[in-house]
Amino acid sequence: MMILLIEDELLVAKTLARLVRQLEPEAHLEGPLESVRSAVAWFEHHRASDLPDPDLILSDIQLSDGVSFDIYREINPQCPIIFTTAYDEYAIRAFKLNSIDYLLKPIEPEELKTAFDKYHRWKQGGNSTHFRDQLRDLLADMSVPSKKYKHRFTAHYLRNIVPVNENNVAYFCRDELIYLYTMDGQKLVTDYGSLDELEELTDPAVFIRANRQCLVNQNAIAGYQSHYSGKLVVTLKKPVDSELTISKEKAAVFREWFEQG
């Protein structure tokens, strides 16, 4: 059995891959693919090379460049999909499908096992037409916005990978690695590649790129002062209790963003 993993968060992808190997040790795992573009390219390459489609797709919904439903509208997969996401707003629509399971992050091993059991039952039934019809109906019914921002992030804490909700992120800072500072003052390591990547993923109504090193949450800001040079000095709320500098060029944009709230 070939399982294709589509997931844009490296930590989550590693965890899922480990669980898949534990639960389906004989399966061949492809991926992870982190974007709509890379997933479509993967299918196009396999089909052009007369290589088989996967037997099962384990797919996040929100990817780095859009939503995974855009993949399935374009390539029309012939296999079941287990959807994973941090956004439970999709649950009602996804749950109505008998051949597609839906797992809310963080994913528990027991839930993934149940999803695999469901796949094996479907496989034994052999009714692929039923699945394709349901997927077609789901894609027709979905009214998903083209841009969906992340509201939960992952980071290392001790030996665990933990979720951090948007409202608990004070700011992200680049210092060789990308660090996540929580509202209660913790400094956690992340696996995000760059602040440019995070700036694309975060809601611009909540986060702003303060400078080349930091992306800050508006809710963490206690206030700011104007510097004689034209820069702004932003003070963060306790217990974070840090100061960030806004460049002269970004000062007007920051003031407008901060006032809009």
From TrEMBL:
Pfam family, one: Response_reg
GO molecular function: DNA binding; phosphorelay response regulator activity
Occurrences of domain HTH LytTR-type (ranges): 153-260
Keywords: DNA-binding, Phosphoprotein
Residue span, Response regulatory domain: 2-120
Entry-linked InterPro entries: CheY-like_superfamily, LytR-like, LytTR_DNA-bd_dom, Sig_transdc_resp-reg_receiver
PANTHER family, per database record: STAGE 0 SPORULATION PROTEIN A HOMOLOG, TRANSCRIPTIONAL REGULATOR-RELATED
The protein, known as: DNA-binding response regulator
